[in-house]
Amino acid sequence: MLTQRAKQVDRRPMTGLESIYLWNILKGMMITLSHLFKKKATIQYPEQKRTFSKVFRGLQVLNRDAEGRENCTACGLCAVACPAEAITMEAAERLSGEEHLYREEKYAVKYEINMLRCIFCGFCEDACPKDAIYLSQTFAPANYGRKGFIYKKEDLLIPHPIEQPEAYKKALGEKVVKADG
Amino acid sequence: MYLLALDWWLILEKCLLVAVVVALSFFIAMYTTYAERKVAAWLQDRRGPNRAGPFGIFQPLADGGKLFFKEEIIPLASSRFLFILGPSMAMLTALLTSAVIPWSTPMHLFGRNISMQIADINIGILYVFGVVSLGVYGILVGGWASNNKFSLLAAIRGASQMISYELAMGLALIAVLMMTGSLQMSVIVQNQVQHGWHIIYQPLGFVIFFVCALAECNRTPFDMAECENELNFGYHQEYSSMKLGFYLFAEYINMFISSAVMVTLFFGAYDIPFVNEASWGLNANWLAIIGFIVFLAKTFFFLFVFIWIRWTIPRFRYDQLMNLGWKKLIPLALANMIVTAVVMLLLKK
Ligand code: SF4
Ligand code: SF4
Predict the structure, then answer these.
(1) Which residues in chain B have their CB less than 8 angstroms from residue A33's CB?
(2) How far is CA A37 from CA B43, B84, B191, B279, B301, in A?
(3) Would A104 disulfide with which of A73, B165, B210, B320, CB 3.0-4.6 Å?
């Protein structure tokens, strides 16, 4: 026996009464009938939403610091760590005058995550040295085409903390994010 | 209005009745599909369709609409005429049985006694059996015309299953016929109104009849002809669009009609138990309406049981099915018949 729960199967041949099945079928029907009155397990999705735990790994968010600058420095560690190879990026150098946009001297001009590939393992979050990416408590909504599942940088970036403080708070969720990476 | 020595009113009246019964069968079959999905959901702790209209009551319309708009495919290798004939026959035979069912007591309208039965022929039960046996052609023709091995296998299975279970069904019924001494539906009902329902005298006969009815309707656990896992959809595998819809729909009409037949034969049709409706002093029309409602209520109960069984037990294996039919049900039905005969003889003497 591999587990404690294994049950010995009764292999005796059926008796005459059992071979008409009726009695056992009736017993089965009583079981299903009792389910008629049980609580329904359904969550009516668009109206009701399941509450996720605090450690739920959902849609990725690209983080900004307290001044609203993008944290990501396009080091590519997340893409290397990603087991599903879902992340693509292109790096660029920060020019003078862009210091209020990007925190580091190098930043990602293009940053894409293919949500059809992503397995929401959270390795990208673990790999990031700049605390630039984390997994939120929402998931990617349904879409009609594959293109819609490739999330661009604009889709991933968190709202600006100073210009849109409410949206920023909402996007941050209950996740505890350190202010500085 | 007697022309050519024909009572034209009678013909008009019957035509109307036929139209009403057919429309009603369609309507009820439509909502049985809805009930099926709802009950299935409830038995599995789900909610079932609830988006189309309040409580999802427009779901059958949406389903029907979807089937109409699906692409219609007639396989090149199929025999075109038979391919179309198959679902048509399934539907036709499903509807035909309703002709002998006594829906209620006669109505009295416009100075005429209008019977609520389309045809009260004196071989009512034989008619039902005849038409039910024709029902197998819908499956057989469809499966064969598809020119697909799986469809053909399923059709053969369906045919042999139906033939096997028809035997037990007939034998179970003979006991009832011995008690009434008539094949006429109205006489059978009258007998029950006077002496109590047949279910009291023939419980075993009813159980056998019910099991066979499940098999005749191709319902789980006897849906051998369309088992998804080994014959991937069975006889209607090549069908699409509304032809498929016809097959599926015919199954629900069959369910409705066979529930109605069961109610007529064993549960006193429109009779309300323990009371004498005639002593209420209502006029005939009201009684007819009440009787009809009672009839429908009983029928709906059996429809529910059909659905309930489907969502409880898995399909039988083919050999189990045949064993059950030939080795268990037929001997039981024969024993039931003989016991009934002996008891009747003893009581009469
Ligand atoms: S969550 Fe995992 S799979 Fe998804 S992008 Fe991050 S590392 Fe890749
Ligand atoms: S998200 Fe983090 S790990 Fe990925 S490239 Fe940006 S800084 Fe590097």
Answers:
(1) 43, 308
(2) 9, 44, 39, 39, 18
(3) A73
| Closest Cβ opposite residue B45 in set A25, A33, A35 | A35
Level-2 CATH architecture, domain A60-180: 2-Layer Sandwich (3.30)
DSSP one-letter code for B326:
I
**B324–A20: do the CB atoms touch at under 8 Å?**
yes
A32/B308 touch (CB, cutoff 8 Å), yes or no: yes
- Closest of B196, B184, B254, B263 to residue B223, by C-alpha: B254
Which ligand 1 atom lies nearest to the CA of residue A119? 3
Chain B touched by A19 (CB under 8 Å): yes
Output the six-digit token pair for B148: 């697909």
Three-state DSSP at B108 gives strand
Cβ of residue A127 lying under 6 Å from some atom of ligand 1: no
CA–CA gap between residue B87 and residue B20 (Å, rounded)? 22
**Domain extent listing, chain B:** 62-348
What would the pLDDT profile of A39-76 be if each residue is shown by its tens digit?
888 888 878 888 878 788 888 889 888 888 888 999 99
Q: Is A93 helix (H, G, I), strand (E, B) or coil?
A: strand
Write down the pTM of the prediction: 0.79
Contact list, A35 vs chain B (CB under 8 Å): 42-45
Question: CA angle at residue B185 from B30 to B95, to 5 degrees?
Answer: 25
What residues in chain B have their Cβ under 8 A from chain A's Cβ atoms? 42-47, 50, 207, 308-309, 311-313, 323-324, 328, 332
Largest CA distance in chain A: 91
* B43/A40 Cβ within 8 A: no
* Bridge partners for B114 per DSSP: B107
Q: Please report, as a single letter, which amino acid is at residue A114.
A: N
Its ipTM equals 0.75
B235-291 pLDDT per residue, tens: 888 888 888 888 888 888 988 988 998 898 888 878 787 777 667 767 778 888 888
- Determine the distance in angstroms separating the CA of A36 from the nearest CA of chain B, rounded to an integer: 5
Record: contact B313-A40, CB cut-off 8 A: no
Mean pLDDT per 10-residue section of chain B, whose length is 349 residues: 69 87 89 90 88 86 88 84 88 87 80 78 86 85 85 86 88 87 85 84 88 85 77 80 85 89 86 74 79 89 91 85 87 91 85
